[in-house]
Every structure is written in C-alpha cells, then in structure tokens.
Amino acid sequence: MTTPRAFIIRHGETEWSLNGRHTGSTDIPLTANGEKRVRATGKALVGDDRLIVPSKIAHIYVSPRKRAQRTLELLHLGCHDQLPWQENGTQHGDKDVLRKAKVQITEDIREWDYGNYEGLTSKTIREQRRERGEKEGWDIWRDGCPGGESPEDVTERLDRLIADIRSKYHGCVMESKEKGACGDVLIVAHGHILRAFAMRWIGRKLTDGVSLLLEAGGVGTLSIDEPAIL
Fold first, then answer.
1. Can you state the angle between helices 191-201 and 151-168, rounded to 10 degrees?
2. pLDDT at 96
3. Which end of the chain is more exposed for a tag (fewer CB within 10 A), N or C?
C-alpha cells in the first residue's frame, strides 16, 4: 500500500504578500503573476506521473478566502463536482480524475487572525510596539496578535483538523478504529497557518519557533508513516 500524504499548498502571490503585509481576514485577489505561477505549478506537479496524482486524492480542504480558492481552481486537478463557491456549474478538467475527492471549505485552515496587526508589515509592527513601549522582539509564534489569535488558539483548530485527516483519510495506516477512505489529502491555504500546520503535524509546539519557509504558490509534502516534511 502506498503511504498517504498531505500536501500543503500556499495560495499564489497577492499585492500584500508581495510587500510583506499580514493578510488574514482581508480578501484580496491573486496578482496576474501569482495566477501565472500557480498555473505553472499545476503543470509541473499535477498528473499521473507527477508528485500530486489526482486519482489518489481522497479529500481537499481549502480556506474560506478567495485567494486560496482561486489557487485551487488554477491547479486544474480535475474536480468532478462543482466547487462549493461556484454558482455556474463550472467543472475543471476530466470529470473522472477526482472521482473520490470532495472539496471542503473549513475555517480550521483559514489564515492566522492577525487582529490589530492586519495589513501591517513585521517592520511596522515592531516600530509601533517600540513607540508604545511594549516588549521588543515580537514573534508571532510566541506572542500571537492582540485582538486576534494566540498560538494556543491556532493550535486548537489545527489539531482538530489533523485529527480529522488522520481518522477519515489516513486511518488505514494509523492505529485508528475508524477506517475511512485512504489516500492523499490536499490543504490549500496561507503562509502562517500552513507553516503552523506542518509544526503540529510533527507534534511540535508553535512556541518552539518555525523554521519552515513556504513562499507564495509553494507546495510542501508531509509524510504519514514518518512525521517529517519531505
């Protein structure tokens, strides 16, 4: 049996990701270059002889944000069913390719809630904190965001999502009483939340700090038999 994997895919470039602004709840589109690069990623990595084999995908989780949903569309995985956010019945690709997989929009994989730091760069955040006499060396993985989420808040929802994946779609290789469908899973979302997801996948605390980098449009692979990032 082929070991199932979890692919984490960050949405393509936006104007705010390009200039380093924290983009949580703000719903802005991909740039033209962002769309171009995601299409190129799909052509390079999706196919029967590629890293992501559509027929082996058991389920797809996607963020509620349009930039993530557009990224999924541009990968052209061959979704049989109408995508949840579409109204015109458009299908993408061979209707039989993703015959097993369903696309699920979930708040559990939305971007970190940046609260008062929404739309700000890390440099601006640190400058404002310095002006207010707050602690130097702000680190989102340790300090979270005032008016938004803490590392504990993010951990709670990511652990819930990981438990769902492992019980429903990776149960065939886990010590689980629930033996559901077995196959690869795709998660299409955002930079901070996907890096946090990878940390929780391997059982590490977010407060330990995160060294994984995932650029806009980037793809990561998580193993299930060995808790490692490939």
1. 60
2. 45
3. N
